[in-house]
Amino acid sequence: MGNVALILKGKVFPLEVQVEQFMKVKEEIEGLIGKEATSELLSKSLFVLVSGSNDRVNTYFFPGSPLPKLYTVPQYRDLLLEKFFSQIQVCLSSIAS
Questions:
Q1: Could you read off the pLDDT of 51-93 as tens digits, one per residue?
Q2: What CA–CA distance (Å, rounded) separates 91 from 22?
Q3: Is the confidence at residue 13, as pLDDT, over 90?
Q4: Is the dihedral of CA 67, 70, 74, 80 positive or negative?
Q5: Chain centroid to CA 13: how far?
Q6: Dihedral sign from CA coordinates of 12, 16, 18, 20
Q7: Distances in Å between the alpha carbon of 25 and those of 18, 28, 51, 60, 71?
Q8: How far apart are CA 72 and CA 50, in angstroms?
């Protein structure tokens, strides 16, 4: 419920922060059950990654946003996708190690 309350208050965690939190939790689990057991646990886990479309609407199209001067819509879309896939790679690398 904590994250929902933060979101309702207008506080959202960027994907980078969520990945950092995942890495910290993984380290905590490793400290409790060991690296091998953590790898086994994660190999049997289901992960859901969700990236909101509001990143594009609330930042690019927001009145007064400097982004339209820096990027075309396709360039900004590609930038968001690049960041998203980069963070997925970080998660996958962490799970594989």
A1: 666 666 777 888 888 889 999 999 988 888 888 888 888 878 8
A2: 8
A3: no
A4: negative
A5: 8
A6: negative
A7: 11, 5, 20, 32, 36
A8: 24
